[in-house]
Amino acid sequence: MGDLAALRSSLSELDRVVVAFSGGADSSLLAWVANDTLGSERVLCVTALSPSLARQEEVECRSLATEWGLRWRGIPTGEMEDAGYVTNGSDRCAHCKGALMDVLVPLAGSSGSVVVLGVNLDDLGDHRPGQAVAMGRGARFPLVDAGFTKSDVRASSKHLGLRTWDKPAAACLASRIPYGTPVTVGRLRSVDLAESGLRDLGLRQVRVRHHGTTARIEVPDEDLARVLELRAAIVERLRAVGFDHVAMDLEGYRPGSLNRSLAGSSEAAPS
Questions:
Q1: How far, in Å, CA of 190 to CA of 202, rounded?
Q2: Which one, 4, 162, 182, 204, has the greatest CB density within 10 A?
Q3: Residue where one domain finishes, among candidates 145, 166, 187
Q4: What letter does residue 139 receive in the DSSP assignment?
């Protein structure tokens, strides 16, 4: 079970850190505890700004930084300039993490800091090539060192009074595009607008998978009936952002559903 004291001890040993801060439950706990343990002068929280980051997530990061007194910077990353990322193969996450480390490593080096990521024990069981890239470039995973699972992250965040404790998972927007379909700013923008529109309708956990002119909606099982009730409004909003057809996935929300074609190959990764 995750131990906050162990997490503080791990961070204290690192002394100065640059936190990759996405605003999700994991990186938020890491950022808050690091700031509380080491002080803002020894902690820099950095949010990677790119077309694959939902606009609302950038707003949320800024808001949390102000609320918690974090020393924060939003810095553009260049994954869209990487042909390996744009091609969108099963190693897309490795290219994305490489672009992130291109930004974080120089920042950390200039201040004698260590790059830390909000990876937890549950993440280690998934195929996430980006983790290997980050580790290879010196990043550390304090939540793993302190024995935190995803449920531990949420429980500790709730205990500390962090409002991110029950925040739905929010993988990057590129994860909504099937492997082999190029990642473009237009496709990312369509997904962002589509999911934002559905959240405005009250669907808190939602994925809009981009299949060309068709949007495939995934929501938790308990929200399937609600989607049917809202179908007219949903269709209107998704057509307004460029989709001609709207489909509801009857299997509900499943992290990594676009990895089905890779089933059995150990390539699956959450999204």
A1: 19
A2: 162
A3: 166
A4: -
Cβ atoms of 177 and 96 closer than 8 Å = no
How confident is the prediction along the chain (271 residues), in pLDDT tens digits per residue? 778 999 999 999 999 999 999 999 999 999 999 999 999 999 999 999 999 999 999 999 999 999 999 999 999 999 999 999 999 999 999 999 999 999 999 999 999 999 999 999 998 876 677 888 999 999 999 999 999 999 999 999 999 999 999 999 888 999 999 999 999 999 999 999 999 999 999 999 999 999 999 999 999 999 999 999 999 999 999 999 999 999 999 998 876 555 555 544 333 444 5
Q: Has residue 30 been placed in a domain?
A: yes
**Residues 168, 263 contacting (CB under 8 angstroms):** no
Q: Are 40 and 128 in a shared domain?
A: yes
- Three-state secondary structure call for residue 161: coil
Q: pTM score, two decimals?
A: 0.90
CATH of the domain at 118: 3.40.50.620
Q: Are residues 24 and 119 located together in one domain of the fold? A: yes
Contacts (Cβ under 8 Å, ≥6 apart) of 250: 224
Sheet strands (E) in the chain: 17-20, 43-49, 72-76, 114-116, 207-211, 214-218, 245-248
Identify whether residues 129 and 208 lie together within a single domain: no
- Domain ends where: 135, 166, 197? 166
Half-sphere exposure of 263 (CA within 13 A, CB side): 4
